[in-house]
Design a protein that fits this description.
14 strands, 3 domains, about 475 residues, Rossmann fold, binds zinc ion, globular, alpha/beta, about 45% helix, Four Helix Bundle (Hemerythrin (Met), subunit A), binds adenosine monophosphate, single chain, four-stranded antiparallel sheet
């Protein structure tokens, strides 16, 4: 079955047909780099990484190119606030959290996007798109701001299913005196003296959030793109506004299917909750990705994130993590048992493709991995090595699309995950320091902790080595 995608705009599952199969384009809204990402923020990059792997597998063998862009928002009020609090330039804050983000993405085995456009590198493109929107009569300048005039775009609200009249009736948005309509949104705004600013025809200032994506999409991928993705919270206003901007910049505001000039398919992932609650600072249940991937293998986190269909809500809890680890143990167990048999073939079986091509049905795809691991186990028991080799080839090829089972099975079972390694190595360095200071109480405390971690330390002439007991 060829790939079908649930399109948020048309509210139905549709056959995916790229505009040009030799150049398939995908854009996903990326992080605002002012702090560590939480586990909810990790859902879109992991989900869309599976999509990109699938698209590459589909289009690249016949010479097509898949171009995936995920932006970095490095201009934002929260970034300004953090930099001001720390007394450092914004670039220092954004570089720190972007580096952490990329490190955590690598632990999740999320492949790097082909393009990672930064707002600070695209101010010219942003100003250019704003100018085009003004020239098309869809935006106006007022008091150093440029505002998009929502009344100029009749299809405004099509993506989110909102109607402008209803929106106005129930308006709770801040009504600034310079706005013609309360729903007009900012394309450009003036900066205060201590805020970062760039020159523009409307005065020095900085871009609004929505315009960055539409301008960078036009600049880096070209319009229209095939697929635009992000979390469900971005449908309104972010993506609704992106469509309005992208379409109006090209003077197509009044065509019936004008939105097709921007993105042909819209995909949105559902929200992640923690122990059935919305993550929030006030509840104190915000789980940082950076901490999670220290505490357990990134693969467990990735598996857990893919264990529900991407459009469904996903609840993050201990049971989910235990189950994810158990599932991976089962799959790695089969690969471990068949370690001496070379895989035969490098294609996933039809059932796997059927699931993953059905709007990324990852739970169905995972079920197909279990069926293959059972085939391996049965083949091993029966001594049918040809069957084992075939199932192993299919399992590895399928797991590759989900981005899992990439470790050496023996290593997986050695119990040496990254989090443990980091902790043990830190403890050994502390132990050495404690001994050098003849702080025996501290050295004993560290020994007890290593025992609790089930680690045996062997002191040797070149320093200490260690292994997990058992
Ligand atoms: P933000 O940094 O808030 O712009 O979010 C980055 C990405 O994470 C966006 O695509 C959001 O839709 C997505 N996102 C934020 N919170 C959650 C959550 N709890 N569950 C799933 N996705 C989320
Ligand atoms: Zn965006």
């Amino acid at each position: 079955m060829p790939l079908h995608i649930h399109d948020t705009l048309r509210r139905e599952k549709r056959l995916f047909e790229p505009r040009d199969p030799s150049r398939v384009t995908l854009y996903v809204c990326g992080p605002t780099v002012y702090d560590y990402a939480h586990i909810g923020n990790a859902r879109p990059p992991v989900v869309f990484d599976v999509l990109v792997r699938l698209l590459r597998r589909t289009y690249e063998p016949s010479g097509g190119q898949v171009i995936y862009a995920r932006n970095v928002t490095d201009v934002d009020d929260k970034i300004n606030q953090k930099a001001a609090r720390e007394g450092v330039p914004i670039g220092e804050v954004t570089a720190r959290y972007e580096a952490a983000y990329l490190e955590d993405m690598a632990r999740l085995n999320v492949s790097a996007p082909d393009i990672a456009p930064h707002v600070t590198d695209h101010i010219d493109a942003i100003v250019g798109q704003i100018q085009a929107i003004v020239d098309a009569g869809c935006a106006y300048a007022a008091e150093g701001h440029v505002l998009f005039d929502v009344s100029s775009y009749p299809a405004y609200g099509a993506l989110s299913g909102r109607n402008l009249d209803d929106m106005i009736a129930g308006a709770r948005v801040e009504v600034a005196p310079y706005k013609k309509n309360p729903h007009d949104f900012v394309l450009w705004k003036p900066s205060k003296a201590d805020e970062p600013s760039w020159p523009s025809p409307w005065g020095d200032g900085r871009p609004g959030w929505h315009i960055e994506c539409s301008a960078m999409i036009e600049k880096t991928l070209g319009l229209p793109i095939d697929i635009h993705g992000g979390g469900i919270d971005l449908v309104f206003p972010h993506h609704e506004n992106e469509i309005a901007q992208g379409v109006c910049a090209h003077g197509h505001a009044h065509g019936d299917e004008a939105h097709d000039e921007y993105a042909r398919y819209w995909m949105h992932n559902g929200f992640l909750t923690v122990d059935a609650e919305k993550m929030s600072k006030s509840i104190g249940n915000v789980l940082l990705l950076h901490d999670l991937v220290q505490a357990m293998p990134g693969e467990v986190v990735r598996w857990a994130l893919l264990s529900a269909h991407y459009r469904q809500p996903l609840d993050w809890n201990q049971g989910l993590l235990d189950q994810s680890r158990k599932n991976l143990d089962r799959l790695y167990g089969a690969l471990h048992r068949a370690a001496d048999i070379a895989p035969d073939g490098d294609q996933p079986p039809a059932e796997f493709l059927k699931a993953v091509e059905d709007d990324l049905n990852t739970p169905g795809a995972m079920a197909s991995l279990f069926a293959l691991s059972s085939e391996i186990e049965r083949g091993m028991t029966a001594g049918d090595h040809a069957a084992v080799a075939r199932a192993k080839g299919q399992l590895i090829a399928s797991a590759d699309i989900l981005g899992v089972l990439q470790s050496d099975p023996a290593e997986w079972f050695s119990g040496v995950d990254e989090g443990l390694k980091t902790e043990v190595e830190g403890l050994l360095a502390d132990r050495q320091a404690a001994r050098a200071e003849k702080n025996w109480a501290e050295a004993d405390r560290i020994r007890d902790r290593l025992n609790a971690l089930n680690v045996v330390v062997m002191d040797g002439p070149t320093g200490a080595t260690w292994r997990v007991k058992g």
